[in-house]
Structures are given as C-alpha cells and as structure tokens.
Amino acid sequence: MADHRGKSCAHIFQDMYGYKWNNDQAQLEYLKNYLNQECPEWLKKYVGYGRSSLMRTDLPSVSFLQKTSSSPVSCHARGFYPNRAEMFWRKDGEEVHDGVDKGEILPNNDGTFQMSVDIDLSSVAAEDWTKYECVFQLSGVKEDVTHRLEKTRILTNESNTINLIIPVVAAVVLLGLIGLIGFIVYKKKKNAKRPPSPVENATAPEETKFLPEP
Questions:
Q1: Secondary structure E strands in 92-131
Q2: Nearest to residue 96, comparing CAs of 117, 123, 110?
Q3: Using only C-alpha atoms, what is the Rg of the chain?
Q4: In what helix (H) or strand (E) does residue 146 lie, and over which residues does it extend?
Q5: Which of 35, 40, 79, 84 is nearest to 60 (CA)?
Q6: Contact assessment for residue 92 and residue 114, using Cβ atoms and an 8 Å cutoff
Q7: Do 21 and 27 touch, CB atoms closer than 8 A?
Q8: Which sequence spans correspond to the domains of the chain?
Q9: Spatial contact of 107 and 95, defined as CB atoms under 8 Å apart
C-alpha cells in the first residue's frame, strides 16, 4: 500500500488515478482530440456569438428637460450601449463644473442605458444660454454627440400643462356648440308639430238693431 503521509490531496489523487489514465490510450486520444480540435472550435463559435454584443454600440437620443423656468436644465441621454459613457456640459469649448450635477448611469428595460447631467443657469442671462452645449461620449465611438442648448428645445412641465389645457378647453367649447345646435333643432321640430292657433283678430257678429214701432 502506498504511503500518502505528507502528501496533498492533489498528489494522492494523482497516485490513485494517474497511472490508470496514463495507460488508457483511448482516453488519452480523446482528451488530445478534444483539447486540440473540439475545444478551439467551440471557443471560436462562442466568440462569434458574443462578438455582436462585445462590439455593439448604440448612440442615445438626447433631450433637454426642465421642471420649471427656474429649475436646473437637465441633459438626458437615453438608449445608449454599452454603459461605458461620459456626459458633461461645455461652454465656449471648455468643460463646465460649477453648478453641474452629474447623475449615475441607469439600466433600461431593453438592455440599454440612460444618464442625465444637470446645470443651474439661474444666474445666466437668457441670451447666453446658447453658449452652452451638452456633450456625450460613448466608448467605441470616436465622434462626440453634441447638442447646443436652445430654449425652444427644452421640454418643461409648464408646456405640458398648457398642452393639456388646450385640448380640454377645445373639447368643452365643442360640446357647448353641439348642445346649442341640438337645442335649436329641437325647438324647430317642436314648433313645426304645434297645431295652428285660432284667429285672434276675427270680426265679431253685427249687433241687431230694432226699429221703434210706429
């Protein structure tokens, strides 16, 4: 019986099965074929399957958001892939740090990602807003995605409220017109069915005059 004192588990396992495997020519040929042919082929296939995901780059849709006219302006990028991305505000070619609040990269339900970076422009004159631009950089893409800030492109809750009020007012006016037209038609039909009234100016019968007897 072999003496296993002072040996590790690996050495003991090798002593127990190594001799058997080394003398099993069929097993050795199978392992040789698997390692030299089958395994590399499977690796190539898996790399090919994953290449589309590894090399995939999806640029985002970028929009400007603002809750109210006095709130910070948010540059929001949505739908990009992979998640190795950077986004920042720039003015006159220089990155802006003051008043900037950068958010985290968050996942979307479709496997893409989104992120936002806010900037406080409350102390900046309205005519100077166009000097600012939002810059998005995605890993694997050489060119930056740049969007210049314009007030007409900012989506706000205030504009959304106005957009909701206009259809409601239009619907109320339309219902009022329909009701008025219906009332007029009803009155006309009712008057057409009413029987003719008696002639109010009909002449009364002549009063009979009696002559005095002679």
A1: 94-95, 100-102, 106-107, 113-119
A2: 117
A3: 44
A4: strand 145-148
A5: 79
A6: no
A7: yes
A8: 16-54, 61-155
A9: no
Question: How is residue 144 written in tokens?
Answer: 């930056």
- Dihedral angle computed from the Cα positions of residues 100, 105, 107 and 111, in that order, rounded to the nearest 10 degrees: 120
Instruction: Output DSSP code: residue 97.
Output: -
Q: pLDDT tens digit string along 38-88?
A: 888 888 887 777 776 778 899 999 999 999 988 999 999 999 999 999 999
Q: Where are the beta strands (DSSP E) in 2-67?
A: 61-66
Q: What share of the chain is helix, strand, coil (3-state, %, to 5)?
A: 40, 25, 35
**Rounded-to-integer distance, Cα 78 and Cα 62, Å:** 7
Architecture of domain 61-155: Sandwich (2.60)
Q: What is the spatial distance between Cα 212 and Cα 30, in angstroms, rounded to a whole number?
A: 158
Give the CA dihedral 82, 83, 85, 89, nearest 10 degrees. 130
CA distance 169 to 144: 44
Whole-prediction pTM: 0.55
- Distance in angstroms (rounded) separating the CA atoms of residues 169 and 164: 9
